[in-house]
Amino acid sequence: MNSTSEGAEAPGRLEASATIVLLRDGPEGMEVFLMKRAAEAAVLGGVHVFPGGKVDAADRDHAVPLDRDAADLQAALGEADLTAVEARAIHVAALRELQEECGVVLAASEIAPWSRWITPVIPGMQRRRFDTRFFVAVMPEDQTARVTDRESTLGVWLGPRTALEMYWRGEIDLAPPQITTLAHLARHPDSRTAFDTASRTPPRLVQPHVVEVDGQKIFCYPGDALHPVGERAFPGVSRLLLRAGRFEPLAGFDGFFD
Predict the structure, then answer these.
(1) Beta partners for 204?
(2) 110 partner at 20 to 30 Å CA-CA among 25, 192, 193, 221?
(3) In a 3-state reduction of DSSP, which class is residue 5?
(4) Mind giving me the DSSP string for 54-80?
(5) pLDDT in tens, 88-141
(6) Per DSSP, which regions of 111-230 are E strands?
(7) 49-71, pLDDT tens digit by residue?
(8) What is the rounded distance in angstroms from the CA atom of residue 120 to the CA atom of residue 83?
């Protein structure tokens, strides 16, 4: 068994980014807003993702108004080595990207940190790596989410489990952070419960650990027996097998929720 460790030398610096998991309550339960990236997009082309993008230099401009101060936002992210200035910029980027990509306007007090994902080092698989903070937010009833960015081709509201079922049938494509986030959200009965959980729970750091078995890559997450971190970052699937370009639980569809 060969192991690719997150502690290995990274090919280039991490790019800070932020994304917002937009939630609402539909007739059959909680739904999540997903956007399909254009096939020609530089990152995750053709994949269904949550609205988000890179932290830009302009996001660090203190002239951008927020309804929470930088120290409060720093505390919410719970990262000892993150400055208040950078914490504020991450929140600004998340809100800006949400507005630019799907026309939804929120304030900083209306988003709650959910998780932090750092792209693993996988030689030959990717050129860019991201340090992404995931937030959750409840969709305002007086607004409508719609695709307003040319990097995406459509937007859709889906129940978390429904989205995973569509992925399993090959009807949509998802990346591991979306897969595991949807599996985690599927445990929540409604959007307010999910948001309240995020508001009172420190966001977990997820640094996937990649091992290779019989020529196949397995992505392991905190709490898995093959991951160096013993404490779980989230309930549900703890490892995904990369098979024919798709990420699947070893135990089949139900493995998303084990």
Answers:
(1) 115
(2) 221
(3) coil
(4) EPPGGGG-TTS--SS-HHHHHHHHT-T
(5) 999 999 999 999 999 999 999 999 999 999 998 876 655 688 999 999 999 999
(6) 112-118, 130-138, 152-158, 204-206, 209-213, 216-220
(7) 999 999 999 999 988 899 999 99
(8) 23
